[in-house]
Structure formats: structure tokens, C-alpha cells
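Blackboard transcription, Thursday session:
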Amino acid sequence: MRLLVSELTHRYEDLTVLDGIDLTLAEGEILAVIGPSGCGKSTLLGIAGGIVAPTAGSVRVEGAVPDGCLNPITFIFQDFALLPWRTVEDNIALVLEHHRLSAAERRERTETGLRRMGLWDFRKALPKQLSGGMRQRVGIARALAVRPAMLLLDEPLSALDAQTRELLMDDFLGLWRREKTTALYVTHNLDEALRLADRVCVLSRRPGRIRELVTIEEPRERRQEPSAQAHLAEVRERLWHLMKAEAQMADREIARA
Amino acid sequence: MPDSLPASPSAMPPARPPAGGAAGRTVAAQPVRFRGGGFTVKRHGWAALAAFAALLAVWEGVSRLGLASPLFLPPPSAVGRALAGMVADGSLWLNLKASLARIAVGWVLGTLGGMLVGFAMGIFSTARAVGVPLVSAFFPIPKIALLPLFILWFGIGEPSKFATIGFGVFFPTVIATYSAIDSVPRNLIRMAQSFGLPWGAILRSIVLPGALPGILAGFRITASIALILVVAAEMIGAEYGIGAFVLMAGNLMQTDTLLAGVLVLSLMGLAIGTVLSLLERRLLNWR
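(Written on the board underneath:)
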């Protein structure tokens, strides 16, 4: 599924958060969005996912949707957004309950998600009994249960420790190898962007405008290899240079205000 | 002790003088003193029982030693005998039954109405805009002051007492319910919307369970209000009921019977609290 963002502007009362964003996500592409705090990354994701109404401009989707897709554009949240009163399996089942599925299919989708994310033994546990990484796995299993065509990920690893982040990045890579889902991935972390994305969109300080779109030439599956490191270091340096300049200017503006 | 640490102070390396040449104090090897764990609260289950027993003993002693007239402060033993007498002659059940029925009907009416309005105010902006000023205006009125009006409207019988209790319970339930709905994390609702859950499913699966802790906390407050109002209403115009019974005992200077009635009220409050605790434990075991 392709995502087409055109002339997108968003204002919260007098505050312009996003200004004139034009962006296209190709089928199966992973686009990371980075930028200083408050530049409108999460707002962009919210608008793309239809949970924030834009002030101006449009967001359209087109293209193939997988068989059995129940929710073409699906979020994975930073804070996991699990219902604390439901068990792991009931949290996954929540997003299937309002669809006309047979009991067997509902069970099959829930079980597949549980097994794929290594949660089978924890299916009866409540979220409070799980670690942060396990909770995010529940969030991913819930997203997989609806067989999405596009994933919108809002800093999905930022609440986790470094070790868990590494493990979940491997999970994401495995997922994308299998499903080839288009993804818009908002992050603060350059390493996540370099590891997972095909392109990186750098937003300017508020109001967020596209400062630059950087393509990572190295194929995703080779990025851990030593031969890829020189290129990745170069891209990293460029991204950091852009980010740093924007963050410093944003800081100066806050200090002046 | 790990191998890397010195086994005894004597095995420690000699203290080095502070860097940068600044003159400092040398501390001889010594164990680190425990300085407290942050005012941790410890459980002393026996303390409440002991305090209760001590209070009863002092009260009994004061009466028996003649320090207070039994007419004004009868000893706990006399109160116990009066309570036993109430059980034996059936007056306890007769009065308790009347009070419990009034509380049940008034509380259920007030709670259902309050939850309905509270939900509307929690969910619909227009209902909130209309409801908040009205609730703010009516909530502070002492509800017992309206009993004479309710007697005029509904007569001296049961409906005026149901109305007083129901009205008293209604406003705190409205406030508890819409505040509880406000406290449901918005990220959960956004998650449900992003997965396309219909409005009814969001209400049933997220808003209602998410608001339940606040609503149950409200029940505790409204149960106490119902108990206060039933006693007050029964004191103004009732033949039976614990409130009427206590008032009658006071008029007859039967202070032991009066205190037995107060004891029954206290036990009623405890029983209601216990039922609500059980309900919370059952419904909110996820917390």
C-alpha cells in the first residue's frame, strides 16, 4: 500500500506544527521520520493514521491490501496502549471482536500473533505482569492480528532498554522480511532509523517542514556486516548534522521566548 | 563476599591523599551505617484490636467507677445487653429491615440516575456543558433540607425517604462517574479508534472498565451518604427504622438502647464497606 501526503499543514490554535509536508511512501517501503522534539512527527503519524484531523492538505492511500486485512493502516504505540484489565490474549482479541469472523478464525489469528511474538506461555498474563519489551510484543501481535497493509510506528522502542530494543529491532526486521508491510516509523534514535529504514525524512524544528529525505543505499539485511559500516557512518554523520542544527536552533528559539 | 572486595579492613589498600593537593580528612575503614529505608510503613494488625479493646476497657472502667453517670454514658456491657434485648424481642430486625429497604431503594435509584447522567456528561460535550453548572449548583444543598419539600410532594410515607436518599446519592454519583470517565487514558481510546472499534464497543470495552475504579470509589462515598440520610429522614418522620429507634430511645432517656442503635448503624456501615471491598477485589483484580 502506498501513502501520499500532499501539502499537509496542521495547526493547534495559533501554533503551526506542520507546514506544507509533501511525502510519498512506496509500497513496502520503510520511511523513518526524525526531527527535534515538538517538530510534529507524532502529529504527522496521527494524521496519516486518521486519528488527527489535518488543518489543510490531504493524506491518501492506494494499492494492494493483504488477504484477510481488517485494518489497513495500523498503529504500534510508544506506550503500548494495552488494556490493563485484559489478559495478553484478550488484548489481541479486542481488535478482532467487532469484525464478523468465525470463532475459529478469531482464535487462529490470536494464536498466530501469540506464537509469532513468543507470547504463547504468557497468554493468560495481565500487562502488569510483563516487562516493557513483552508489552510491546503484545502491541505488535495485536497489530499483526488485523493483517495490516501499512504500519505506523510511534517511537515503538523508546520506552525500552537498549538490550530489548535490539531484540525488538530483530523482530521488526523478521516481520518486514515476511510481510513486506509499508511502514512510517517515527523515532528519535538515529541507530533505529539506520537499521530499519529505506529512507529517512528529517523534519525541521517547529513548524515541521521536510528538511531533507536521505536514502540509505545499503540493503537492510547487510547493514550489520562490517562492509556496510563506512556507508552507514557517513549517512549517520549527515543525519546527525541535520538534526543537530535543527535542535540547536530550536533550543535557541525556546531560550529567546 | 565477592573475591574482589577486601575480606577485612586490614586488607584494604592504604587511603590515598585527595587529588589536587587539597587538604582533606582521612576516614578510617568502617562499616557503612544503615540510614533508613524511606519511612516504610509496617503492618501492625494487632494494634487496631488492642486500641479497640483498650477503649472499651477505659469506657467500662469510667462507668463502673462512677466517673460518669450511667444515664449519660452507660458502660459497653449495658450497651451489649440492650443489643441482646433488641435481638430477643425482634425490634432489631424490624428496624434494621426498614432502614435497609430505604437505603437499597434510594441508593439504587440515585446511583442509576447518577451513572446515567455522569456517563452522558463524561462522553458528550453538550451534556457536560449543560450538566456541570447544574450539578455545581445543586450538589452543595444539604439534601435533608429538602425532606419537607419531598414530604409535601410525595407524602409522609416511603417515597419521600427514597427521594431524599436518591437525591443525596445522585449528585456525588454524577461527579464520580464523569470524573472517572475523564480519567480513562485517552491513548486507549485513540488505540481503539485506530483499530476501527465502533463507538459502542469502545464504551463497553474501554470506557466502562477504565472508569470502574472511580465509580466504585464513588460508591463508597454514596453508601455513607445514604446511611446518614436514612437516619436523618427516619428521625423526621418514620415509625420504624434505626434512625426512628435511636430518636425514640433518646426521648425515653434509654441511653444504653440509644447506643445499641448507634452500634447497629456503625456495623451497617462496616458491612456496606466490606461488601464494596469484596466487589472491588473481584472487579479490579487487574490493578
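Lecturer's comment: Residues 199-237 of chain B form the longest helix (39 residues).
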